[in-house]
User: Fold this.
Amino acid sequence: MDRRSFVTLLTAGAAGQAITPAAAQTRAAATTIRAVVVGGGMSGATCAKYLAMWGARSGIDIAVTLVEASARYPSCIMSNGVLVGERTMAQQYYDYDALSANHGVRVVTASVARVDPDAQVVTLDTGLELGYDRLVLAPGIQFDYSQIAINGTGMSAAQAREQVPHAWKAGPQTEALRDQIQGIRSGQHVVVTVPRSPYRCPPGPYERVCAIADWLGRNRSGSRVIVLDENAGITAERVNFGRAFTQTHLNIDYYPNAVIDSVDFDAGALSAKTVTMRTPVTKTNPVTGATSGGPVGSFQAAVVNYIAPHKAGQVVIDALGSVAGGLADGRWAVIDELTYETRVPRIHVVGDAIASKQPKAGHIGNQQGKVCADAILRLETGNDPFSAPVTNSACYTPITRDTASWLTAVFAYNAAAGEMQVSPPGVVESPDGATRANFEAMQHWFAALMSDTFG
Assistant:
């Protein structure tokens, strides 16, 4: 897998599938399609862009409005570099100017107050009402703190979470976690938790562990990264991360099946924090499965990066929670993977908020946005959705400050099962492991992905 292959795969999901001008004539002339996209992340921004771009190329009269609470998008991809001083937070931000200037997308900076599917109206917190023919919800994820007690000393939940930042939505928490990590003394430790799958960016927590371990190894002698993984083992890039945890970095302690019960501490960003497990856990070699030491019921560290379990963004929960079969496990939107339409007609969901065998990640969110855009244009012009969509999941993973590995998988629609499934040969890891060449290629992949999404 080389740089050209990765860049080509950016458009593999739906490129060439857009409606032809001839097919578009089935739509009544002078009737404008009103498309509203809520959420300006990787999937939402891509969907808005390609609805406008493919609509214009196909001669379809479509008005696309993108609703996003923030004026700029802070990229989670590559944000682990901010934690260790290899990137700045300023490098992570992307605005929506090009979507407006190049593609005519109307961008509204606001949050959704409510969705009325009967009237087909979205009301914003500003009071503005947006009518729609098709509504795409792309809010990403929110965090579920109901399973853990954080500091029962009277500190508010918001203050407590600042002390144990997830930094799994890039922005102020990324900088808060950076300051905590870089403020520890030699011999102090960092705990990183991995939530039960599915969660956003399967390789991401392990990538973060490598970034922190690499920095500690160069800057804080005697400091270790304690990995508390709620899963039975590493969930992504098992070979590459197994090698990284046991050979590249010798300051990582890995504990699988680790369900956290509570985090307790005194006020102060670098005070000693005690992480208590629901049941004791044992340090395990992630490659061989061999255990060492006895069961441990609690850990102490100066920094605790608690990545809470995920569920769909609140606008999805509100829109689908009362609909029979609208949510899977009460957390994720149930969608038709040919169109990304939900159980509520004319409401689609793309990205991390959906129930799918496709991973929750930025690259594949970009792909889903394109498939959804193509399906909407087809449906609104009286055509059937494309029957064989293909998406690609791909990402690079920094292992040290100058080496990276990668993984990729192609997903195709299985009509018999009615879902997207991974295609042979399955999920493929970089056969050469972590290299400097991969690290350089990662820069090109990231630039191409962000340009395709926001350019």
Observations:
- The longest strand covers residues 273-284.
